Amino acid sequence: MRSPFLLPVAGLALVGAAAYAIFFVAPEEATMGAIQRIFYFHIASGWTAGVAFLLAFAANIAYLAGRAPKWDWLGVASVEVGLAFCTVVLITGPIWAKPVWGIWWTWDARLTSTLVLWLLYVSYLALRSLVEDPRRRAVACAVFGVFAFLDVPLVYFSIRIWRTQHPQPVIAGGEGSGLDPVMWQVTVLTMAALMGVMALLVWQRYRLEALRQQTAELALP
Amino acid sequence: MSLLRAAAWVLLKEMRTEWRTRELLTTTVVFVLMVVVLFSFTFDPTREESRRFSPGLLWLSFLFAGSLMLNPSFTREQANDTWQALRLAPVEPFAVLLGKIGANLLFLTLAEWLLLPVFGVLYDVSLLRVLGSLAGVLLLGTLGLCVVGTVFAAISAQARMRELLLPVLLLPALTPVLIAGVEATAGLLEREPRLDWTWVKILAGFDVVFLAASYLTSEYLAEE
């Protein structure tokens, strides 16, 4: 049997390699300077959170379709991990914005929608902690998760029409945009590292939930 | 029994229950009145400012009112042990949900219309000239609030701290309704009133998406 430490160590090494590349390999950005290096973790965390929430949505649908408890476990695991990465986005963003924009926070479209997204999934966890019966909790969370996920594009579009200040996408944003090839490679490496960590954490959290369920069933009524 | 007929029966039942006590409607009206009055203490608005603040104030107070008044929709059934009977009724689960959405829409709209004149007087905004468009915007926004709110009320009815949980679930989800409702209303209250169709479309889109979602999830809400 392979060592239980193999994957976590590999994940950690990947994050370490990404951090090394961010600080020592990636070139310094011309106008923003060193602070731009936070962008690698910021963007990669955003994408990772998005993938985790997408996974949670798929798990919620699968639970409603088949009622297998494992989908409920995957649902809560992905929401919790996605929320952690979303928190990283919300913390690294202001750290970058203060020196570059001169303010910590602004009610811009992406910032505001990310905050609302964060609030939506925090309320998912609130709901989860307040329903006792496992079956009812699973159904309630799955239905709420579907509604929350459907809400995300509506939130995004309504806020985007309302206002926008976030830098336009630099990676594929039309003319004048484009990334230094080394910056690209570092971005992809960071993305891979964080996706790997996300998958690991979701897997661990899933197993924890499964064990919790088993012990709950073993307990005397 | 057809879906709409069954939903109409549930709606009638809700109306009859409410008519006997009228407690939901009176409490909601008094609550919104309080919010509207208290707001003026925190902002001390001049005439020009109140034109700027009033759409937000209006929608926020309706949103708070909705997130509180939707609670009894299902908790009342539980308290009276009538939820079981509704679940066992030989109709589609969506009919029960639709009836309740309709009842909540009716009660909240009634409360809104009772408060609009008071609001117009206290904040010195002329609502009469845009009454038709305002009615449409209010109806679309309130429908969205009631669709999502009724589903979330069914969810939160099974939880502890349900009175507190419903606003926590509902308010972030209603962000699009709040923004679109406020912006559309702000356009109507300008010196040269205009109806911005972008916001009306967002409100209508919200309603359609979540009516469909509640249709698809209604059978799970009716489970024991």
Topology:
The complex is a heterodimer of chains A (221) and B (224).
Chain A: H1 6-25, H2 38-66, H3 69-101, H4 109-130, H5 134-162, H6 181-218
Helix pairs in contact in A: 1-6, 2-3, 2-5, 2-6, 3-4, 3-6, 4-5
Chain B: H1 3-21, H2 23-43, H3 47-69, H4 72-79, H5 83-88, H6 93-123, H7 131-156, H8 162-173, H9 175-189, H10 197-221
Briefly characterize the structure.
Chain A is an all-alpha fold.
Task: Output the keywords.
heterodimer, A: mainly alpha, 77% helix, globular, B: 224 residues, mainly alpha, 83% helix
Describe this structure as you would to a colleague.
With 221 residues, chain A is mainly alpha-helical. Chain B has one domain. The mean pLDDT of chain B is 89. Classes of the chains: A mainly alpha (221), B mainly alpha (224). The interface between A and B is medium-sized, with 29 and 31 residues.
Provide the succession of SSEs of chain A: HHHHHH
The separation of the N and C termini of chain A measures 36 Å
Radius of gyration of chain A: 19 Å
**How many E-type strands of chain A?**
0
Largest sheet of chain A: none
Order of helices and strands of chain B: HHHHHHHHHH
Strand content of chain B: under 5%
Whole-number total of structural domains of chain A? 1
The residue fraction in helices of chain A comes out at over 70%
Given the C-alpha coordinates, what overall shape of chain B results? globular
